Structure formats: C-alpha cells, structure tokens
Amino acid sequence: MRVLVIAAHPDDEVYGMGGTIAKLTSKGHEVHILIVTDGCTAQYRDYENLPEIIERKKEESKKANALIGVKQVHFGNLPDMQLDVIPHIELNEVIENVIERVRPKEVYTHFYGDVNLDHQMVYKSTLVAVRPVPDQCVKRLYAYSVPSATEWSPQMIETSFTANVFSNIEDFELQKELAIATYQTELRNYPHPRSIKSIKALDLAVGLQCGMQSSESFILLRSLS
User: CA gyration radius for the chain?
Assistant: First the structure.
C-alpha cells in the first residue's frame, strides 16, 4: 500500500506521526512525504544565505525520513507563513500533482483546528485534492496533530482534536526520536512541546487514552470501500 503524509513545514511529519510512519514502513508499506513549504522563508528572511539554509533544511528532511523508512520526500517549495495569501490554486496543484504521481491509498494531513494558519490551508487544499470523485485513488483520509500547533488552539468544539484512531508506537519510539533530533534547528528545551522529553510524555499520555503504551492518535476524516 502507498501512503502519503502531507506536511506544511519540514519536521511536522516526524513530530506529528514519526512513530506511525516507521510502523507503516516496517510492515512493507511505501510511504511518501510531501513538505509543502520551504520552512525557512519567514524565519530566515533577513539572511543573505537563505537559499543555502533552504537546501540544508531539505537535506535534514531527507535524512530524518530515511531513518523511519520513507520511500521519497517531495518538496512543494512554497514560501512558509504565506499559504493564506498565495493563490489557492497554487497550493491545490502542489498537493494534486504529488497525489497524481504517487497514487496513494491513504493520505494523512494537518488538523483543521491547528493554530498555525499554514496547517489550516494545507488541510483545506488536501480536501480539494482528495475529493471523492469517481476513480479517486485515495480511500482513507486522516488528520494528525502536531505539538505546539494543535494543543495551542483554544479548546473549543471546532478546534479540539478528537481522535478516533490510535496507533501503538512502542516499538518505534527510538526511530521517532532520532528522526526528530535530525531537525536540530527545531528542537527546544523541556517543557516546550517540541522537546524530546515532551514528545515522549505526550505519546505516553495518548497511550493512556486507549489502554496502550506509547501511541499516536488521528482523526479518520473519510473511508471509502
């Protein structure tokens, strides 16, 4: 089975579901990652060597995802923190083009309630790309959460991540941690949610919700059979 994980920024994919990606690849599934933006344009906009930083981030992405068995990382190369102002059709096309090439059966995308606006826009464009037209290759669509983006939204009905799918990642914790550590510029000190210690605590807490060990959770948005 081919799987596509869509991430707005480099590192969203491993922070959000690195354990599940490693679990899928260990079972022989072919996992692809689409990173929509360069993840650098806003953060390093005043740096003269911005192109070099963007390329370095791409190499980090490839290395991190190789550690969890990913087949290929695709890059959309759109500017980060600007997905709400570029023409919507451009974002749609980035996602649609990769889906057309990969032909995944399952797609994972961002949660619509995340505080990060880029995440919200990726979610909306994913819905366009996987709309249930005849012969749609995508049969299952999931949303995943990202630390410091999902839980930082106001906890109201429309922004609460209400999981209905849980994945035990007890055997894949180390791979996830190593992949996260590859993104050195994104690591933070505890108790920031993007610290390794926080991630481990979060995965254990998710496991407690479903009677399992370290786990990741998802929202099943659509299933076609």
Answer: 16
Q: For residues 178 and 109, what is the distance between their CA atoms, to the nearest angstrom?
A: 22
Strand arrangement of the beta sheet that strand 2-7 belongs to: 72-78, 30-37, 2-7, 106-110, 140-144, 215-223, 165-168
pTM > 0.85: yes
Nearest to 61 by CA among 50, 77, 43: 77
Q: Which of 32-36, 52-56, 150-154, 207-211 has the lowest mean pLDDT?
A: 52-56
Q: Which residues contact 79 (CB under 8 A, 6 or more apart)?
A: 37, 38, 41, 42, 86
What is the Cα 45 distance to its own chain's centre?
23
Would you say residue 139 has pLDDT above 90? yes
**Residue 84 near residue 46, CB atoms below 8 Å:** no
Euclidean distance between CA atoms 10 and 157, whole angstroms: 28
CA distance 175 to 170: 10
